[in-house]
Design brief:
By secondary structure, this protein is an alpha+beta fold. It folds into 2 domains: 83 residues, 2-Layer Sandwich (Gyrase A, domain 2); 93 residues, no CATH class. It contains 9 helices and 5 strands. A 3-stranded antiparallel beta sheet has the order 1-3-2. A two-stranded antiparallel ribbon has the order 4-5. The radius of gyration is 34 Å and the shape is elongated.
Length: 207
């Protein structure tokens, strides 16, 4: 309710609809666009820009016409560059509907090509974090051709094969251990009896 009241009381209002080519169909991406634009604006006017349902709205009192015009021009100019804004991790997870572990695994094996890294300082902390970012055109291509489903099917087969090989290796290891640990016969004979010895003894030739 507070946001709507702000618009009613403000005489200067301008809106910008964020197209799918910018948001890639993601509400998380849309919020990231808002944060990116706010970060580039002067601190005093950042909160004048808000986001509701993929629509950016800026409102200021009538006494701020000069600032309003200048800020509006800045926002319009920045929006023209937002289609090429790199996609950050939380955005690509929302766009492709993937988990963090999938993103990390596919990034590591090259299925998700990195467009570079970005370093940011955590709010209120001295520590910085560096993370990979992604080309929005590449992300859109992955989404359009349904690559995620193919990758998941491949991973299921790969995991099953890895488990099969691990089971075979474990079985072989147990077999070799049993042979190694098997005690030698007390009479000093070899562990493998002569073929046909039992039949020969049953015929009574040794009696």
């Amino acid at each position: 309710m507070a946001k709507h009241k702000q618009y009613v009381d403000s005489e200067l209002i301008k809106t910008w609809s964020l197209p799918t080519s910018v948001t890639l169909g993601s509400a998380v991406r849309a919020k990231g666009i808002l944060q990116e634009i706010r970060a580039r604006l002067p601190l005093a006017v950042r909160k004048a820009l808000v986001l509701e349902s993929a629509v950016l709205t800026m409102s200021m009192p009538d006494t701020s016409r000069a600032i309003f015009r200048a800020t509006s021009a800045s926002v319009t100019g920045m929006l023209s560059d937002m289609e090429s804004l790199p996609v950050i991790p939380r955005e690509i997870e929302d766009i492709l509907a993937i988990s963090t572990s999938e993103r990390r695994r596919w990034l590591q094996d090259g299925r998700l090509p990195s467009a570079g890294t970005r370093t940011v300082k955590l709010r209120g902390r001295a520590r910085q974090i560096t993370f990979h970012v992604f080309d929005p055109a590449v992300v859109m291509d992955i989404l359009d051709r349904g690559a995620v489903d193919e990758w998941r099917e491949y991973d299921i087969v790969a995991v099953a094969e890895k488990r099969r090989q691990s089971a075979m290796k474990a079985k072989l290891t147990r077999s070799l251990r049993k042979k190694k640990d098997k005690p030698a016969p007390k009479d000093g004979s070899t562990s493998s009896p002569l073929r046909g010895w039992d039949e020969f003894d049953a015929d009574g030739f040794l009696k």
